[in-house]
Amino acid sequence: MLEVRGLRAGYGAVEVLRGLDMAVAGGEIVAVLGANGVGKTTLNKVLSGVLPAREGEIRFDGARLDGATPAAIVEAGLIHVPEGRRIFPTMNVRENLELGSYRRGRSRRAANLERVFETFPRLRERARQFAGTLSGGEQQMLAIGRGMMAEPRLLILDEPSLGLSPLLVEEMFALIQRLNAEGLPILLVEQNVVQSLEIATRGFILENGTFAMSGPAATLRDDPELRRIYLGL
Ligand code: ATP
C-alpha cells in the first residue's frame, strides 16, 4: 500500500537520503533500521510531508503523496507517531487523545477513544492526569493511542523503544505486534535491530543514505554480516 521509489532528500548541501526504494504491503510490519544519524528521522519527515523530497515518488494506495501537505497525508490515513513522544504535557491524557482525531476519525471520536482505552487500560485510569506527569512508557502509549484516534490505514512509528527500559521495550514491541495482528500495517523505524527484526515481516537497513540490505526479517536476522555489524557477534 505504501511505495517509495528513488527517494532523495536532505538539507542544504547535505544529501541524507540518496535513492531509497521500499514498500509496505497490507498486513505487514516493515522495519527500517539504522544507527544514530543515518537518516531515519529524515525519512519520517519526508513521509509525513514536513520535508520535501528532492527526487522520487511516494505512493499510498496508488495516489502520489510526495508534495502533499502533512494535513492531506493524515487525511489519507498515513498516520505518524513521532519520536520522543511529542505529547502536550500540560493537557490531560484524554485531551491529548482527542487531538488525534482533529483531522481524521472525528465523527467516531467516542468509539475510537473507547478502543484506545481498551488497548491501553492504563491510559483510561489516567485520563485526567496531565500528560507531562506520565512515565516514559505511558507517554509512548499515549503517543500511539493518539495515532490510533486518527483511524490509521498505515501507522508509522518513529523509534517507539527510545528511552524505555528493556522490559518496557518488550511490552511495546508485543503491543505493536498485537496492533498489527488486529489488521493494522506498520512501518517501524528503529535503532533496535534485534527486537525489531523479531516482530517485523521484512526489514530495510539504512546506511550511508541507501538501503544497504533488505529482505525478509528472518533472513536478515541470520545474516552473518548484519550480526557482525549490529549485534557485535
Ligand atoms: P537518530 O537516530 O540519532 O535520531 P536519524 O537516523 O534519525 O538519527 P536524522 O535525524 O535523519 O538521523 O539525521 C540524518 C543526518 O542529517 C544527520 O547527519 C544530521 O546531522 C543531518 N540533519 C538532520 N537535520 C538537519 C537539518 N535541519 N539541517 C542540516 N542537517 C540536518
UniProtKB/TrEMBL annotation:
UniProt keyword terms in alphabetical order: Amino-acid transport, ATP-binding, Nucleotide-binding, Transport
Any single GO BP term: L-amino acid transport
Entries under InterPro entries matching the protein: AAA+_ATPase, ABC_transporter-like_ATP-bd, ABC_transporter-like_CS, BCAA_Transport_ATP-bd_LivF, P-loop_NTPase
Signal sequence, start to end: none
Keyword Transport: yes
PROSITE patterns reported in the protein's UniProt record: ABC_TRANSPORTER_1, ABC_TRANSPORTER_2
Keyword Cell membrane set for record: no
GO molecular function, one term: ATP hydrolysis activity
Domain ABC transporter: 2-233
Alphabetized Gene3D superfamilies for the sequence: P-loop containing nucleotide triphosphate hydrolases (3.40.50.300)
Family according to the record: Belongs to the ABC transporter superfamily.
Protein name: ABC transporter ATP-binding protein
